[in-house]
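Input record (one chain):
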Amino acid sequence: MGLTVVLGRNVVGGRGSRMVTDRQLATSKAINRRTGRTFYVATRLLPKRVRHPTYVLYAFFRTADEVVDDAAGVPSDDQYAALERLRAQALGRESTDDPVLVAFREVAETHDIPDAEIESFVDAMATDVEKGRYEDYAELEAYMRGSAAAVGRMMLAVVGADDRARARPHATALGEALQLTNFLRDVREDIEEQDRIYLPRTTLERHGVTEEQIRRLEFSEGFAAAVHDELRRAESLYWHGVRGIRYLPADCRFPVLLAAVLYAEHHRLIRARGYDVLSATPRLGLARTAWVVARTRWRWQFRRDPETVFEAVSAVSEGAGRRAGTGSSSPTR
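The corresponding structure, as predicted from the sequence alone:
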């Protein structure tokens, strides 16, 4: 089915399609701008055919996420029920007048996003209702397969690729890398606001860090070492993800590369703090973001090779070798 987007006098779409209206698109874009500023910067540089569906996808992801993240005092049964309603509406099994879900359904049909990816994503959100600890990286990776990896694969469907099978593992790895960066950046917020710890218990125990220590926001050399280890794991995933950007359409490569560079810039901030993400949450300010965008764009003008530019400008090149993680999207546990 063709996607019809009405923007002023511009209509893009196909015969017989439903309509993603000004209101639906504006709602999705506003959610992206308000809750995902780093991602929003890169999204704005995508070509319109990809940019508009990406706003819709992001708004859907945030809508689902907020069912469990903004649910203080809401019984778990009610959260599960809300997610099941969202699942049915996202899959087109139930009608809805929610502008985000209506627009998402149209994007999913237009770009042939498999129902299995939607199911996997909602299942991951359901995991967050009651689970807040992960024994090892294998368990955390299983969670990310439904959250970050599914997001990466849905984005791949929207962006398009001549050889989607070859691009798919790289999209999976990049999605996981971005989420791991978020986990490492947000340790303080996750424990204080959601009572969640996304650092694997095995990593913490290897460095003598206890759950109680994190609850007290008690920084130590052991905690720094644990964050360092997980940062390196994320950085090997970045390399595997960036290697797949060459499979994307030419006009989408720079924005996707920029998203990777901007998220990875948090690693520079984390290292500069000596890996202390407990006393404060590292944030990219507007000036630093603008500097990273300008530096990456300048490099891209001279060498339009994602790996070369990523190595030249990203914070990852400081913390992990270029050849790390070449064999798989799953780093050594």
